[in-house]
Known about the structure:
Elements: H1 5-17, H2 21-34, H3 41-51, H4 55-68, H5 73-88
Amino acid sequence: MELTFEQKLQQGATALNTGNLKEAERVYRAILHSHQKHPAANPNSGLIAISVNDIDAALPLFKTALKINAMIEKLWVSYIVYKKLITFL
Length: 89
C-alpha cells in the first residue's frame, strides 16, 4: 500500500529528526518532484544540504521556502545560518 502525502511528510520528518539524512533526502526529493513549492520539503531539504556540506544546494531551497511563506521565523533563521556559513568558507 502506498503512503499518503501526509505519511510521506511524516516519514521525511522522522528520518531527518533521527539523523537518517539519506532517507530524509529521498523522501523530500520525491515530494519536491510532485510539489516543487512545498513549504516543509524545501527548507528541510535545505537543512539536509547544509548537513552534508552541500551549501550551494541549500540556497535555492531556502529562497523558495521564504517565497512561499516569509512569515515563518524558523525559515529566516535557517537562511541566516546559511549566509553565515558561506562567509566562513
